């Protein structure tokens, strides 16, 4: 976690206040207003199985995607953004379904809009239900296999393998139109897998899945990524993205505003203090000592019903980490927990997108 360097030397402090005089943090301090980085500031090496280079997409006067650049390689990458952020439009351009207005898209070294060989190594799971309602899951997957040029026993084997990946039996003759939302989602993923793609693009694939199936689907994505495939998954659900992996692309209003592990993204917010919950046997004694040493900017002793914790805001996480254990020993008190409260994906997303 990145921190703002502090001036060397111990700051001069007035006599330590009593615990009752210590300020409560209230909302996290804002510091200077946050300005989302421009695409040029979101620097990425343009080398990977998917390369999006200065891409924009216009629909008349509407700018759906604006000057986006990134590269994605093998493994699982999550594309995070609210509804309407431009995620589906980006996916359609990556799959060659719609042209860019500006910039270029490369998939496996080729233009997916004109190169049939590249498209044959790509799988798409769209957000919409692109299924034939009257077909069974097996028949639907066989149709998809045949659309990739497979026939006979090859199409049958590919369909059975794909259905097995998503825990669907190929002997169920019920038409997919009678399936639940979660089962339809699994059929869509099987259809996207039937050509054994090197690049798999999934648009909100976890919608409608129950918790067990969601965990299994995420495990499948990781297995595919570990096998060397490029798996790109979009979601607007923060908890899903946190489970999908460490590589996150954040888009809002058609622009790429950040990328990386969301813990690293929290480091972009150095103009804001970090909030930490500390479990301790004597919160008031520790609170006074932390203020006296200039390690906190605000704190709160009245959190919930517990009497053995305090919540602090600090601009010097590294300094706090180095000093708090020796300080506790010096004071004769016991530490039981140190837990970041704004190091989660929701906090990062809210800050990067909404500036708060």
Protein topology:
Blueprint lengths: L49 E10 L2 E11 L2 E6 L6 H8 L7 E6 L8 H5 L1 E4 L11 H11 L4 H14 L15 H13 L5 E5 L7 H16 L3 E6 L2 H7 L2 E6 L2 E6 L1 H5 L7 E7 L2 H10 L5 E3 L8 E6 L2 H15 L3 E6 L4 H10 L2
Task: Describe the protein in words.
- The chain has 356 residues and is α/β, with parallel strands linked by helices.
- The chain folds into two domains: 50-266, P-loop containing nucleotide triphosphate hydrolases (Rossmann fold, 3-Layer(aba) Sandwich); 272-341, Alpha-Beta Plaits.
- It is built from eleven helices and 13 strands.
- The strands form three sheets. Strands 5-6-7-3-8-9 form a six-stranded mixed beta sheet, with helices on both faces.
- Strand 11 (298-300) and strand 12 form a beta hairpin.
- Helix 3 crosses helix 4, helix 3 runs parallel beside helix 5 (181-193) and helix 4 (152-165) crosses helix 5.
- The two termini are 19 Å apart.
- Mean pLDDT is 82; it is low at 1-44.
């Amino acid at each position: 976690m990145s921190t703002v360097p502090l001036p060397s030397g111990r700051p001069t402090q007035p006599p330590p206040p009593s615990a009752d005089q210590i300020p409560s943090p209230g909302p996290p301090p804002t510091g200077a207003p946050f300005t989302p980085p421009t695409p040029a500031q979101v620097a990425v090496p343009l080398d990977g199985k998917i390369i999006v280079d200065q891409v924009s997409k216009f629909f008349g006067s509407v700018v759906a995607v604006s000057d986006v650049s990134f590269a994605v390689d093998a493994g699982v990458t999550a594309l995070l953004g609210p509804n309407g952020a431009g995620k589906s439009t980006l996916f359609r351009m990556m799959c060659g379904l719609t042209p860019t207005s500006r910039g270029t898209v490369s998939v496996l070294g080729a233009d997916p809009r004109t190169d049939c060989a590249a498209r044959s190594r790509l799988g798409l799971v769209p957000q919409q239900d692109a299924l034939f309602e009257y077909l069974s899951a097996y028949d639907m997957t066989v149709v998809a296999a045949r659309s990739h040029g497979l026939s006979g026993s090859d199409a049958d084997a590919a369909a059975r393998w794909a259905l097995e990946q998503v825990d669907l039996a190929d002997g169920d003759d019920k038409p997919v139109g009678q399936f639940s939302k979660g089962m339809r989602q699994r059929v869509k993923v099987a259809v996207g897998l039937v050509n054994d793609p090197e690049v798999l693009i999934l648009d909100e694939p976890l919608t409608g899945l129950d918790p067990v199936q969601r965990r299994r689907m995420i495990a499948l994505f990781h297995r595919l990524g570990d096998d060397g495939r490029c798996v790109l998954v979009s979601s607007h659900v923060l908890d899903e993205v946190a489970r999908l992996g460490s590589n996150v692309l954040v888009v809002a209003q058609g622009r790429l505003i950040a990328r990386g592990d969301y813990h690293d993204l929290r480091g972009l917010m150095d103009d804001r203090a970090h909030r930490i919950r500390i479990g301790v046997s004597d919160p008031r004694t520790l609170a006074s000592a932390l203020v006296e040493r200039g390690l906190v900017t605000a704190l709160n002793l009245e959190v919930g019903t517990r009497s053995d914790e305090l919540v602090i805001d600090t601009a010097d996480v590294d300094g706090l980490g180095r000093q708090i254990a020796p300080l506790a020993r010096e004071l004769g008190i016991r530490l039981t927990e140190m837990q970041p409260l704004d190091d989660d994906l929701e906090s990062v997303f809210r800050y990067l997108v909404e500036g708060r």
